[in-house]
Design brief:
Helices cover 54% and strands 7% of the residues. By secondary structure, it is mainly alpha-helical. It has a three-stranded antiparallel sheet. Helix 1 runs antiparallel to helix 2, helix 1 packs across helix 4 and helix 2 packs across helix 4.
Length: 197
């Protein structure tokens, strides 16, 4: 087994750029999803129209869906890496070719290394499945995205309070900062600050 690498070649070869790019894209995508999901949950909880406010309620409503999404995405990436291995070095080995470059092996396996690329002529080892590590990594990325939305909403409320402080006698209402502009913030001398979804 390779030590956590997602490559087809020798163990001292770094993971291919495509593997890293796919995993990075998944990380960024689920972080954005976590940003949007927790932001919407906070807006809904503040208006008390969808879910009741509370730390544990918010945590379960955020982490559980994100964990399911992270596992599904990691399962898809794991399947793609397995399929690429089966159709790449493993298929070349079954076709009596060098698993690394595809060069035809000599008769009766007379040589121990490929005459074309110098790779060892032995059955390629399937890379270790990244399912568990990738699932955890994606969930952590989603949580970081969620914290980003809390920071973004906190800045928005702070700016709204600054606007109110300029003229406390005047009622004020405006939508929240994008992308949560379907919700709003209001202020009046009678009711004080309020959020609506």
């Amino acid at each position: 087994m390779t030590s956590g690498r997602f490559d087809d070649g020798p163990e001292d070869e770094p993971a291919p750029f495509l593997d890293r790019a796919v995993i990075a894209a998944c990380m960024v995508g689920i972080a954005m999803l976590g940003f949007l999901w927790l932001g919407r949950l906070v807006c809904a909880a503040e208006s008390a129209e969808v879910i009741p406010p509370g730390l544990w309620t918010m945590a379960i409503a955020f982490v559980l869906p994100m964990a399911i999404v992270a596992f599904i995405v990691a399962l898809g990436v794991d399947f793609l890496l397995w399929a690429r291995f089966e159709r790449g070095p493993e298929a070349r080995w079954r076709d009596k070719r060098c698993p690394q470059c595809g060069h035809k092996k000599p008769p009766r396996m007379a040589a121990s290394v490929c005459a074309e690329c110098g790779a060892a002529l032995q059955r390629p080892k399937q890379p270790r499945s990244p399912l568990v590590r990738l699932s955890v990594g994606l969930l952590v990325a989603a949580i970081f995205g969620g914290f980003g939305s809390l920071f973004w909403l906190g800045i928005d409320v702070y700016r709204f309070r600054l606007d109110v402080a300029m003229d406390p006698a005047q009622s004020l209402a405006r939508p929240r900062a994008w992308p949560f502009d379907s919700a709003g913030l209001t202020y009046s001398r009678v009711d004080g600050f309020a959020a609506n979804d």
